[in-house]
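Milestone 3.1: sequence recovery, worked example.
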């Protein structure tokens, strides 16, 4: 009789864990869907920001009007350029090319 009780208790415990696991998967699915939306929004905002950094000489460090941030820095330009390549956006890829050309020019 003891083994029968034990088997029943194991079955109840297993069903309880199974239901909890299903709820967890359901909640994670909703979270992933929300994260997917958040991810798309973040990519759109980042792309818009990168486009603001494109200048006639390459990627600016920042679209702000502060002195040093309106400069083209090799490291920043390369990091932005990697993101540009991932988007495949022609304007952003062109910004990378301009940045690379400018970074190989001798300093004045």
């Amino acid at each position: 009789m003891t083994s029968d009780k034990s088997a029943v208790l194991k079955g109840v415990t297993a069903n309880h864990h199974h239901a909890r696991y299903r709820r967890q998967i359901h909640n994670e699915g909703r979270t992933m869907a929300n994260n997917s939306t958040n991810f798309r929004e973040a990519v759109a905002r980042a792309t818009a920001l990168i486009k603001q950094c494109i200048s006639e000489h390459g990627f600016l460090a920042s679209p702000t009007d502060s002195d040093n941030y309106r400069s083209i820095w090799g490291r920043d330009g390369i990091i932005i350029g990697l993101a540009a390549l991932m988007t495949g956006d022609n304007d952003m890829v062109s910004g990378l090319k301009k940045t690379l050309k400018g970074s190989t020019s001798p300093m004045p």
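The mean pLDDT is 76. The longest strand covers residues 54-55.
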